[in-house]
Amino acid sequence: MGTKRSLNRVYTQIAGHGYSCPLEAARSEFRRGGAFQSLTLRYVQAQLVQAMQSAGCHVQHEVDQRLARWLLICADRAHSNTFKMSHEFLGHMLGASRPTVSMAAAALKRKGLITYTRGLITIPDVKLLEKKACECYHVIKDHLDNYTEFDSGIIS
Q1: Torsion angle defined by CA atoms of residues 66, 94, 48 and 34, in that order, rounded to the nearest 10 degrees
Q2: Which terminus of the chain has fewer CB atoms gathered within 10 Å of its CB, N or C?
């Protein structure tokens, strides 16, 4: 974002792959003002929308709803309904303690909304888990699914 230092760290939350490039190459491409710059700015907006929605969600919704939201977003991004994730990590993401996350996960498991064994989480029926998640899931999902599309702001 043009500063010398960032408070952000980039890491993967689910096993998979990612891409990187030298910082100066990204800066150079961004300065050209083309497609990379446009996509980068839309991605930053998508991250801001997710952060703002998550902040409001933490105030308004119960931990089981927030857990359902987070698991659905992870499944969407991983393109898989099964992934490895510890309760401790989920606690960090949800702003809750590991025991609180374990109790919420157990409640979701009892209802058949998720299964888990030693950090391996599976969502057997996405539609059922969506019913448990708060409305924040769809707000975030819709924005993340569409951030690559350009909106001119012109209403026709």
Answers
A1: -100
A2: C
Separation in Å, CA 36 to CA 25, 28, 59, 156: 11, 10, 35, 27
pLDDT, tens digit (0-9, with 9 covering 90-100), for 11-22: 677 777 778 889
Q: Give the 3-state secondary structure of the chain.
A: CCCCCCCCCCCCCCCCCCCCCCHHHHHHHHHCCCHHHHHHHHHHHHHHHHHHHHHHHHHHCCHHHHHHHHHHHHHHHHCCCEEECCHHHHHHHHCCCHHHHHHHHHHHHHCCCCEEECCEEECCCHHHHHHHCCCHHHHHHHHHHHCCCCCCCCCC
Query: What's the full length of the chain, in residues?
Result: 156
Which sequence spans correspond to the domains of the chain? 23-146
**pLDDT tens, position by position, 16-64:** 777 888 988 988 999 999 889 988 888 888 888 888 988 888 889 999 9
Task: Map tokens 């909106």 to a residue.
Answer: 151
CATH topology for 23-146 is Arc Repressor Mutant, subunit A (1.10.10)
